[in-house]
Every structure is written in structure tokens, then in C-alpha cells.
Amino acid sequence: MTAFNLQNGLLHAENVALRTIAQTHQTPTYVYSKAALTQTFARFQSGLLGHDHLICFAVKANPSLAILNLFARLGAGFDIVSGGELARVIAAGGDPKKVVFSGVGKSHAEIRAALEAGIFCFNVESANELQRIQQVAAEMGKTAPVSLRVNPNVDAKTHPYISTGLKNNKFGVAFEDALDLYKQAAQMPNIAVHGIDCHIGSQITELSPFQDALDKVLGLVDALAAENIHIQHIDVGGGVGITYDDETPPDFGTYTAAIMQKLSGRGVKVLFEPGRALVGNAGVLLTKVEYLKPGETKNFAIVDAAMNDLMRPALYDAYHNITTIAPSTAATQTYEVVGPVCESGDFLGHDRALAIEEGDYLAIHSAGAYGMSMASNYNTRARAAEVLVDGDQAHVIREREQITDLFKLERTLP
Length: 414
Ligand code: LLP
Fold this sequence. Notes:
Elements (H helix, E strand, L loop, with lengths): L3 E4 L2 E4 L2 E2 H8 L3 E5 H13 L6 E6 L6 H9 L3 E4 L2 H9 L7 E3 L6 H10 L3 E4 L2 H14 L3 E8 L21 E2 H13 L3 E7 L10 H19 L6 E3 L16 H12 L5 E4 L3 H4 L3 E12 L4 E5 L8 H5 L5 E3 L7 E7 L8 E9 L5 E4 L20 E6 L2 E6 L4 H4 L8
Parallel strand pairs: 4-20, 5-6, 5-13, 6-7, 7-8, 8-9, 9-10, 9-11, 11-12, 12-13, 15-17
Antiparallel strand pairs: 1-2, 2-3, 4-14, 14-15, 14-19, 16-19, 17-18, 20-21
EC number: 4.1.1.20
Keywords: Amino-acid biosynthesis, Decarboxylase, Lyase, Lysine biosynthesis, Pyridoxal phosphate
Pfam families: Orn_Arg_deC_N, Orn_DAP_Arg_deC
């Protein structure tokens, strides 16, 4: 059974009809499939069995406690970028000893919390951050395990999807500076050099950028060995793309084989930080058609989900497939699928052929990654509910926000 499948014309998540979820829990609602999450994780891992590895799910892609808990049970570690994400991982039963901490702006308090929790490694993004980690670790009488996140400056001209591995962005330590900074790190009393890390971008659909980046990283690992600095793990980051429309990203087997082939004989542990690839296609956003509004040049389908629920179309002009979830007798027409938010940029899909009437439900696909995690309360809209389907059971893993929740921390002047 595939996670999202048609049974008697009705779109199901596993064995639960999405229409039943929409009627029971209202809309907009994110719906995830446990089978999809579990199977995707297993597929990613299958090429790594027999190798010393750790799959650190990038929490930012989907920080739901239930989903983190599921991955923790499957043996995953986590890639975090804030103290908040660390707290979530711990609350979800994740093992701090399997956590790597990335991000360019780690605060004193966040470094402290990570040292207290005993994380696996800090992915250090600058010389000043390294100094700060040394200082905090010294205050606490601890030793901080570190990797430097190196920026391999992979050529964007040939690989336009890469956005974080280039010289001109804020991430990582410049490749040319890395050797010197490692030498300094090796001398610091409260720093233990454990690994090396590199993350070159997201939604990457070709293999070669990963290979090019790893080649550069391995060159550095060899240069470090010559300086008697021995790297115990290589973190190759995340970034493997998914199919939203007609993209053809490398399948997991091809991707992991390409990585492992380059690491063969080196005796290092390998870390991965996949986010989107593990959750993106394991979730949909369910929404209801509120109004059909014919226009002079375009027909609008105004739905009850909006840019505050799923920001990717408005922010990146990203494509998400949109389908009905039940048969319809309505005539097929082309619609702009838009939300109720007061911005012209509030769209979920352009020019979509749909057979719909007011009151029908739609599924916005590939919404499991960077969907709910980027949702906001813009226009004082309560954030959506989240449901995780397991077989024929639909579990609410996050209740719909109440409007009063949205202003309960606010005060008027006396
Ligand atoms: N590791 C680091 C250090 C990262 O910065 C990221 C994502 C990941 C891992 C996971 O990357 P993934 O495997 O998911 O590609 N909001 C954007 C994506 C931003 C990704 C930021 N960093 C979107 O909706 O497309």
C-alpha cells in the first residue's frame, strides 16, 4: 500500500479517507502518514547498513513532537539549529548524544544548554563561534566536541540549486581558512576536534554537487591528517531533493552509494542531515474550497488554507501539486488556488485544472517538509491542526490553535 492512495475514488492516507479527516477535524489540517515516514527512513538507511553512520533528521523541516519521537524510535539522531529545537528533541524522547548543532548564531545560552545535554557535536560556523564555545565549555569545566562546517564553494553555475555552499553566503567557514582554524581548535583546552561538516543547500536534484563537495572535504581531511589532526566523522549535510512536480532527484540508494564509495577504506563515521527527503512527501495539507470566484481573466478558488499555513508558494514560488480528494461531477476549470490572506502573493497554486464546487476539499501535496514548520499567525489566523495516520487510525498530534491562544501573551496599556 502506498501512503497516499485511492480507494473507491477517495484519496486516503493509508486506510483513512482524507474526507473523513477533514469532516472530523475540519480544515486546514496537515495529514502525515506513519508508514510513509517509516518506509522513507528505512529506504534512506538501507544503503548504510554495515557502515558506521548516523542519520540526523533536520528538525527544522518538521519539528512535530510525534514525528521526532517516531524518528527517535527508528534510531535517528537530529540536526538542530536552536535551543528550541534541542528542547523539542529532548521532549520527544530523542537522544541528545545523537544531536548535531548547526547554525551561524548560537547564543551563549544555547551553547550552554547543548553542553549540559551532552550533544554529539557542534557544527561550528565561524572563528568567533569557536572562541565562544571554548569560553562556555571552560566556564562549565567541560570539553566541547566540534566539527567545522566548511564551505566548499561548489560552482553554482553548473549547479544552480546550491545556495548555501557558496563563498558569498553566511554559512560555514571559508574553505581556505579551515585548516588554520582547525589548528587553532586543536590547541584549545576545552575543544575536542571530532569531525568535519558541510551542507551545500537544499532541494538538490543532481548527484554531482554532493560529490564535488565531498571531494573537497576529503582533501581537507587529508591535509588535517598531515597536521596530526584526525577526523573521526564526516557530516555530509542534507539537501537531497524530492519530487514536487517532475523533478528527478537521485534515489537514496544512488545517493548513499556515491557517498560511501568516496569514504570507502577511510574508517570514519558518516553523518547525514536529511530534512525534506525524509518528510516532504509524507504529508499533505487538507483545505476546503470556501468560494469559487470567476474573474475576467482568471477564475479563483478561494480555499481556507493560506500563505500563513504553507508559505513555500508565496516565498519561493514553489510548486505543490493540488488535487481533489473525492470524485466530483463539477466541470473542470482552470483556477488560481488562493487563500484568504490579504496579500496578492497569497497563492497556493497557479493555473490548476480542477473539478470543484464550493465546500469540496483539496489536498496540497508534498507538504510534509517546511510546511507547518514555517507556518505563522499572519492575519490572526490560528495555525492548522496536524494528524498522523497509522493504518486505520488518525491521531491528532497537534490541536488546531484557538484564536484566544494567539493573543494570550499580550497586554493592553493600564
Ligand atoms: N542541515 C543544515 C545545516 C541545513 O541548513 C538544512 C536546511 C538541512 C540540513 C536540511 O536540508 P534538507 O535536507 O531539508 O534540504 N525552507 C526551505 C528550505 C530551507 C532549508 C534550510 N536548511 C524550503 O521550504 O524549501
